[in-house]
Amino acid sequence: MSCLQTILRFIIACHLCSFIISLEQRSGKVFLHRPSNILLLMADDLGWADVAFSPYHNEPDVPETPNLDKLAHDSLVLDNLYSQASCTPTRGSVMTGKYAYRLGKQFSSFIMTSTDERGPSIKFLSEELLEYDYKVHGVGKWHLGHQEGSLPTQKGFDSFYGIYYGMGSYFDHKGVRHTHKDGTWLHNLGNHDFHYDHKNGSTSTFTETDDDIGIHSTELFTKAAVKRIKEHDTGMPLFLYVAYTAPHSPLEPDESIAAKRNEHINDLERRRYAALVTQMDNGIGEILEALEEQNMRNDTIVIFLSDNGAALVKSCWDYVGGSNKPYRDGKFTYFEGGIKSPALIWTPWLNADLRGTHSKALLHVVDIYALIKLLAENNQGATVSGLFQRNQTESVDGGNYLYKTLHGDHSGRETILHNLVLPRNPGEKAPKYCSPTTGQPDNYGVIRHHHHKLFYGDLEEWCKSDLLTEPCPELVFVNGSAAMLFDLESDPYERVNVAADRLDVVWKLVSMIKEYAKTAPTQWVV
Q: Which residue has the higher pLDDT, 328 or 210?
């Protein structure tokens, strides 16, 4: 075959490929690029102003995070990805694609003193990925049930290395038990909560004699994640979930990092908190380097987010070094500071004009589930249009908004149901976890539609919560219930209640909350 014939055949093949893609696009079948591996990185209680890539805050005392900064420069930064207000609800939504109220965990977390709590009985993403021949490994914090039947390797993971509960000592790896006495939360170290589980049934719980006692948890989690990458058979796709416990309480950083890497921060508590963030960043750098060394980086999508905003009130925590500026309030509240997650996503096929840019698309963590499910199905030849239709069901709240955002369509969602808590059963008391004065209020909903955000229900009790750092704006009563309506376009920091002037918007959003309430699984679940 002559050189000219070879060139002509190549040109014809290129045109044919282009024609086929065009036909697929016109028919609504847009096939994805095919990166097999997924690295999902989750920080714990990381605030909006705790990373440099989050916009608007202009904070001078941001923790040093060179690896995240570099990754953000090559990623699409998600300026409006919303989580839930605390650990378990967010993790449950990521793993199921469902809003937290469908899981019966609207704001409550599994705590170490519980003896009867189980994770949701529905199938997790980790279980679904097995159907697409993924190897599924988890490292770090689970916090989705610690009883038999709800442990990570019983929910699809091939292996899990980390803690079952919500927090623990970084060095001796004991879980923290919360005891409330005389208005004060006491933090007592309980049993060791550090596990290495395999799907074959083998499991181990660390004891005082283990070599890893005394080594910082963040370093151990990084080491385990790197090991999983280096031992992975690249003939199979990998889902690696790395859920760091940093920078969650207790305040136990590597002090050398606090002294040497964050000396620009004057406040000692903030500096030590920043060291926890920097240690996590070091780990992320090592994990990305391992992907490079194994020639897996260009076949991997990297997603980074926080499970909620930083804690700002000392209740269950021994410090409050994080920052959600310029947004109000923090963890356990549904003001922006509690649910606006610093987040980014890197893909090998992201267009050059999107790298290092920010998307204002309205997104929720349930959409991460939808994207990962889409990537898994694509490995089997599925199409965007096919999965998108299946995600518009009553049982799944996630849609392919994140996928569309990655391809330059930043229209995002119209609506997010942030929370829905139905009335308590008669005679049932409010749980006091982390809120010794008021407990966790009930009978309210929080919904976002376009640029309006509505709080509606028994807000008089909600606004008395000792988890708030400042008083609520004056409440407006509509049909016997309190309402706070914020226009986040003109008032992103939620200072002005415009409910009285926009009753038509209030009624529209109330009707939407009531529709969601029809699908609540139980009358009251804490």
A: 328
Task: Give residue 145's Cα distance to chain centre.
Answer: 17
List, in order, residues 6 or more apart from 7 with CB less than 8 Å away. none
Beta bridge partners of 358: 77
Distance of CA 408 to the CA centre of its chain: 22
Distance CA 363, CA 384 (A): 18
Return phi, psi of residue 289, to 5°.
Answer: -65, -40
Query: What pLDDT does residue 107 have?
Result: 57
Tokens 């920052």, residue? 323
pLDDT confidence of residue 443: 82
Cα–Cα dist 298/168, whole Å: 35
Nearest to 190 by CA among 118, 109, 253, 113: 113
Whole-angstrom distance, CA of residue 148 vs CA of residue 180: 27
Give dist(CA 485, CA 285) in Å, integer.
42
Cis check for the bond before 250: say yes or no (omega within 30 of 0).
yes
Q: Are 45 and 331 in contact (CB under 8 A)?
A: yes
Other residues' Cβ atoms within 10 Å of the Cβ of residue 392: 11
Q: Give the whole-angstrom CA distance, residue 106 versus residue 99.
A: 8
Q: What SS3 class is residue 70? A: helix
Question: What phi and psi values does residue 263 have, to the nearest 5 degrees?
Answer: -70, -15
Going through 329-377 in order, the beta strands assigned E by DSSP cover 343-346, 357-359, 363-364
Q: pLDDT tens digit string along 157-200?
A: 999 999 988 888 898 888 765 554 444 444 455 677 888 888 87
Token pair 């060139």: residue: 7
What digits encode the pLDDT tens for the residues 228-251? 999 999 999 999 999 999 999 888
Distance (Å, whole) CA 297 – CA 39: 10
Q: Give the C-alpha separation, 461 to 439, whole Å.
A: 9
The strand pair at 135-141 and 238-243 is best described as: parallel
Query: In sequence order, what E strands does 148-231 have?
Result: 159-163, 174-181, 184-192, 195-198, 203-205
For residue 352, which phi and psi values (nearest 5 degrees)?
-60, -35
Helix H, strand E, coil C: the string for 120-167 is CCCCCHHHHHHCCCCEEEEEEECCCCCCCCCCHHHCCCCEEEEECCCC
Please list the alpha-helical segments (H only) found in 169-216: none
Whole-angstrom distance, CA of residue 104 vs CA of residue 520: 8
- Tokens 């897996």 sit on residue: 296
Higher pLDDT residue, 118 or 336? 336
Q: Counting runs of H as helices and runs of E as strands, what totals does the chain give?
A: 14, 19
Token pair for 173: 């790896």
Rg of the chain taking only CA atoms, in angstroms:
23
